[in-house]
Write a structure and sequence with these properties.
By secondary structure, this protein is of the alpha/beta class. Helices cover 43% and strands 12% of the residues. The protein contains 21 helices and 24 strands. The strands form six sheets. An eleven-stranded mixed sheet has the order 1-2-23-18-17-4-12-13-16-14-15, sandwiched between helices. A five-stranded antiparallel sheet has the order 9-8-7-6-10. Helix 7 packs antiparallel against helix 8. It starts with 16 loop residues before the first helix and ends with a helix.
């Protein structure tokens, strides 16, 4: 605060301190208005559309959004998209035809927005698993940019399938995986049969958390790797317990002691692990009371992880259940193949690269194409130039010795033939007998696509490690991360209640800064009087200063308490347990840091490509350090003295 923002101190006389507080209150209100105006202008300037092809009919306003540190945190819409109403109507109609199970009603969520925390969690799970086709006012399909990328330099665009092209319903698909994992724990690992009666809550956990395998804890970290929220089983750890466990020693939170929940597939195993931890700690009555006594937390995690992985890799039960009624487990995006054709018409090659085996991939893609259950054909395959199933990512990106197999008669059987002599074959020779493969490695794919550099490929996936980090680090691919949770996060962030809470938090931080300045001035004055042995100055005694200092200190403590309560209340609007996905407190979470560091682009659905031109140029915001935000409108009164000293 400069001298123009405060009246003369008159020696900081505590007897006129109360009178000054009334003046300061009015002054603070004026500053608040100015700061809010500055913030709004900055937001409008920084989040305008950055694209090189504005003439494209596929580019509604603001669908290519620059972001930096972290883009989503500065996403504050000040004007409505002029095309959102028309698009919302058309999307609403197609969405009703695409899903048999109605999505969570936005109006119902908002009606109970501040009444029940469970409604927030339910809305979170609903928007993750279900396309919010009726969403008009909130998130509008923007593609956010962390790293400059000119689409003219992209020769091929690849897609993962699970949770990228095919979004699964958490209340049905994840529950199916959970129940199958329980059976495997009982039948394969010898766990008590009573656990078969346990139920799964798809709203409890979120992505980006870490599992402490040795202690049985689930953690949420900030970008500096400090633990901000921790649960042991389903019991929350206090701040003192967190500090004792994780602040005295530096942890990297990596394997083998920690596991990151970096995909939506990992949420059922986290919930099942917490249930087993609770059973072990509570000593619940089981057939074999000594079973969990002999199990360490690490062993329990290993059993749970192996059981869940077996459900996905075997595909026997999952494929059979999903094939019976795909609409019960998968959300069909009616704009998916429209978006893929939009890219293909631009001359780019498209490829599908998924860890799911071919038989299951064919069932899911036929449903996404629009075929009814049980109808399998090859029409959807015409969109892709290369299809690789069972790719074993992330090994696909790092091991160039993995064998490539060709799927023979893909519509009739799943027989595989080894592809020999790949090094002597060209792209046309590799593909002339069929474009559907299983296994292989990145070198095989580059040869089929006739790609010489990894930077020519844009790969779209949902898995932070297997899809984004490994392809980026090892091959230099450009990456785009699909984050369905953006629907819920931005809709909540733009709600009137969240806006009011966020505004109140900013004002409280400003009040805290003012009180800290008052404490500093009073402390310095009191210390100066004590050093000079002066009992009174300008009618104020040392005791007067001590009383004023104590009063302001109490007010500061109250302000800090209110800040903590406000931040907690704000985060509960996003999720009642883990809060905002991309934040811990007001800092970026470690999940947000990974998205910013490794994902060139990120958006909610792969079909959002239809909103931008295939030749557009994505631009990110300029990198800023805290001192870059200093833009003084008045001269610093200390600048002259500092300049003379430097001279």
């Amino acid at each position: 605060k400069t001298s123009s923002q405060r009246p003369p101190r008159s020696g900081s006389n505590p007897r006129i301190w109360v009178k000054r507080m009334a003046w300061s209150f009015m002054d603070v209100r004026s500053l608040r208005v100015a700061l809010l105006a500055l913030f709004s202008c900055s937001a409008v300037a920084k989040f305008r559309v950055r694209s090189s092809s504005f003439s494209s009919p596929f580019l509604p306003s603001r669908h290519s959004v620059a972001s930096r540190g972290f883009g989503l945190s500065r996403y504050r819409r000040t004007v409505k998209n002029p095309r959102c109403a028309a698009r919302g109507e058309s999307v609403q109609n197609t969405g009703a035809q695409a899903a048999d199970v109605a999505p969570v009603a936005t109006s119902n969520i908002n009606a109970h927005f501040n009444q029940e925390k469970s409604s927030v969690a339910g809305a979170y799970a609903g928007t993750v698993g279900m396309m919010a086709f009726t969403n008009i006012e909130g998130y509008q399909g923007e593609i956010f940019c962390n790293r400059n990328m000119n689409m003219k330099g992209i020769s091929a665009v690849g897609f993962d399938m699970d949770y990228t092209l095919a979004l699964y319903r958490p209340d049905t698909f994840e529950k199916l995986v959970y129940k199958e994992a329980l059976k495997r724990l009982v039948n394969k690992k010898g766990y008590p049969s009573t656990i078969l009666d346990y139920e799964y809550d798809p709203t409890y956990y979120v992505r980006g958390l870490h599992v402490d395998k040795n202690r049985g804890n689930i953690l949420k970290l900030d970008r500096h790797k400090y633990v901000k929220v921790a649960y042991h089983g389903f019991e929350k750890l206090s701040k003192e317990e967190r500090m004792e466990l994780y602040s005295n020693a530096r942890h990297e939170f990596t394997e083998p002691d920690f596991q990151c929940l970096d995909t939506l597939f990992s949420l059922p195993e986290a919930y099942l692990f917490s249930q087993m931890i609770t059973v072990k700690d509570s000593g619940a009555a089981l057939e074999d009371k000594t079973f969990f006594e002999d199990k360490t937390f690490f062993e329990i995690w290993r059993d749970v992880r192996q059981s869940v992985d077996a459900c996905h890799w075997s595909h026997e039960h999952l494929k059979r259940e999903v094939a019976k009624d795909p609409a019960q487990y998968i959300v069909r995006d009616p704009h998916l193949f429209e978006s893929l054709r939009h890219l293909k018409r631009s001359g780019r090659k498209l490829f599908l690269l998924t860890n799911s085996f071919w038989e299951y991939t064919n069932v899911v893609m036929n449903y996404l194409w629009g075929n009814p259950p049980g109808v399998i054909d090859s029409q959807w395959q015409d969109v892709f130039d290369v299809i690789i199933a069972g790719s074993c990512k992330p090994g696909f990106f790092v091991n160039n010795r993995l064998q490539l197999y060709r799927v023979q008669n893909p519509q009739e059987s799943t027989a595989l033939d080894i592809v020999d002599g790949i090094s002597d074959l060209g792209a046309q020779e590799l593909l002339q007998e069929g474009k559907i493969f299983q296994g292989g490695n990145w070198e095989n794919l580059h040869k089929m696509l006739e790609i010489s550099a990894g930077s020519e490929i844009l790969y779209v996936g949902d898995h932070m490690y297997s899809d984004v980090i490994r392809s980026k680090r090892d091959l230099g691919w450009r990456t785009m991360m699909v984050i369905p949770e953006l629907l819920h996060e931005i809709d909540r962030m733009e709600s009137p209640l969240a806006q009011r809470e966020f505004k109140a938090i900013r004002e409280l931080y400003f009040q805290r800064a003012c009180k800290e300045d008052d404490i500093n001035e009073l402390s310095v004055k009191l210390a100066d009087m004590e050093d000079r042995g002066q009992d009174e100055e300008e009618g104020a005694t040392q005791e007067d200063y001590r009383e004023a200092l104590e009063l302001v200190s109490e007010q500061l403590a109250d302000t800090k308490t209110e800040i903590r309560e406000r931040i907690k209340s704000y985060h509960e609007l996003f999720h009642p347990i883990w809060g905002q996905l991309f934040k811990t407190g007001l800092q970026n979470s470690i999940f947000a840091q990974h998205v910013e560091k490794y994902a060139c682009l990120y958006t909610s659905h792969a079909s959002n490509f239809r909103f931008v031109s295939p030749s557009c140029s994505f631009r990110c915001m300029a990198d800023l350090l805290p001192h870059d935000g200093l833009r003084r409108t008045v001269a610093n009164p200390l600048a002259r003295d500092r300049g003379s000293m430097e001279a």
